[in-house]
Write a structure and sequence with these properties.
It contains 14 helices and ten strands. The protein is an alpha/beta fold and 335 residues long. Strands 1, 2, 3, 4, 5, 6, 7, 8, 9 and 10 form a ten-stranded mixed β-sheet that branches.
Amino acid sequence: MPKVSVIVPNYNHALYLEQRIQSILNQTYQDFELIYLDDASTDHSNEVFSQFLNNSRIRAIYNETNSGSPFKQWNKGIKQANGEYIWIAESDDAADPRFLETLVTLLDTHPAAGVAYCQSRQIDSTNQLKGTMHWWTDDLSPIRWRQDFYNSGKEECQNYLLIKNTIPNASAALTRTHLFEQIGYANESMFLCGDWHTWVQLLLQTDIAFTAEELNYYRIHTQSVRAKADRSMLYLKERMQILSFLNERLELPEEAVEIVKNKLIRDWLILIFAIRKCLNFKEDTSFYQLFKTIDPLVEPRLVKQFNNLFSKKLVRHAKEWVQHSTNYITGLNNS
């Protein structure tokens, strides 16, 4: 039986797929199987992948129709896995040859850890390096993710994963296979935050190990999940689900909860005024009412975040929006 099962879920990533597969096959650690899952791609992904089918360690599963969820593909691959460890190697990313060698050693060395991950470098669609992902966690700590650490999973959730997805790319992580069955697998009802929700579920059961070595190449491009999330109301709602999920299971630090609530309101306002640049009463009312279930005092929080955005000139034509905002809050509250 292989030590590691590498799951490669793909949808329309023909442009990056050969590099992705080669970066797996070129690992210094070779005790793995590779399971390729194509979710009814409409590009030439499967033609690109066909060159690897003569490798006895590779299996392919092709969907006739698109599943509608990347996390359904995760679960399908995990249920087919024979390895002790799982690596979800997203099809548009790449890896340093020492990725598996390093993370397998981390999990072998720390039997109480169920998740190990590394620092990521960010690349664009043309493979140009755009720095590391330190920018993503520097607001939480400018030091922590620049050195190796080991932590209780529950503490990691309470202090960091509550606030944001500090494992921003699944390709950077290695997990113990049996834990997925224990948590009931990834949440297939989520589209943008299913990975974040999965880390939370796993870390309520186990510990986490991190290496500051930059062994993962996280590709950001216009069709990436992160690019879509930044423009999505769905992303805000799924973040709220994670807050509620953790709040039901842990005693959360009040200061951290306040940070999350303020970030949600702030990002909602930015979505309305800076990205969408229009009001969508049905969509915004739905978010408002959902938020009110976790924060009955949403109105003063909303007004405060309006004022913060206006004072920092993050919203154009602030004066024109002041009356709109007052009327809007009143309307939402009465809906």
